[in-house]
Amino acid sequence: MNNSLRRLDLNLLVTLNALLAEHNVTRAAMRLHLSQPTVSVQLARLREVFGDPLLLPGPRGMRPTARADELREPLRQALEALERAVAPSSPFDPARAGQTWRIAASDYGESTILSPALAGLRSAAPGTRLAILELLPPMLARQAEQADIDLAFHISAEAPPSLQRRPLFTERYVLAGRVGHPRLKRRPTLAQFCKLDHVIVSPDGGGFHGVTDTALAELGMTRRVALSVPHFLFLASVLTSTDLVAMVPSRLVRDNDALQVVEPPLEVPGFEMLMLWHERVHRDPAHQWLREHIVKSL
DNA sequence: CACGCCTATAAAGTGTAATG
DNA sequence: CATTACACTTTATAGGCGTG
């Protein structure tokens, strides 16, 4: 910022603005809730600063000089902009809002969190836009910090501690396969479970070992993981078109009529889903509204 | 010319914040 | 905690200017 402003008491500009609007020191004083002599003194200092008389006592009140006329509009607009910037943020009005929110989510987050929130968001805040970005866990903290994203959904185990958080729900794993799958008529035993061919979702790519395999190992058992996919959404079509089965988060399959869902024969630890955001937007009414809307839509 | 409005300025008191 | 500096206040005064 230009150094010339540091030489200037910016409050003097407020007085100047009032003076240029009123062309009258006394009325400007009333508008500013100051006494008339105070404003008179301020005018004297303004004259000093600008090296111009600004307002000259004339036949009909104070007449502005050319310099004063030149200052009036830009000054008024600048002060209005300042006032808006400094004003305590007004309550968010979703119906008239037009901002763009950037949200990082996995396909799991898209279908379990965003999908339920979207219709309500469209009707409550039709002027807003949503940009869904791929969830990149190692980048989360940095993206949030640099305002690349406003909000993210991620599991609590991997959530960057630097971000603000709100738990959305805890998730558990269920066993899913196609409707009519011969081994899923009822809940399989542990031994039957281990003989099935499994699909695993490995967001990091290519892994064949997951929490289920860890839980099995503690029981001295193993299963056969025949397919590893990177996304949850591809999983659904794989399950309906093959006899493969998968341990999946329950929310992902609860409304899917094409899938048979049963309780697994072993205890597999679930996970907690968090909504994450940066301190930067923590108190912003618009962001608060969005977060509240998402929580209510679950 | 008197009246009422205005500005400019001075003097003295008050409240607050920085400073040692 | 007392001192100091500062900005603002109120009050008083002088004087300019248009109006009836």
UniProtKB/TrEMBL annotation:
It comes from Azotobacter vinelandii (strain DJ / ATCC BAA-1303). PROSITE patterns: HTH_LYSR. Belongs to the LysR transcriptional regulatory family. One of its GO terms (molecular function) is DNA binding. InterPro entries: LysR-type_TF, LysR_HTH_N, LysR_subst-bd, WH-like_DNA-bd_sf, WH_DNA-bd_sf. The keyword Transcription applies. This is Transcriptional regulator, LysR family. CDD domains: PBP2_DntR_like_3 (cd08461). Keywords: DNA-binding, Transcription, Transcription regulation. Gene3D superfamilies: Periplasmic binding protein-like II, Winged helix-like DNA-binding domain superfamily/Winged helix DNA-binding domain. Residues 8-65 form the HTH lysR-type domain. Pfam families: HTH_1, LysR_substrate.
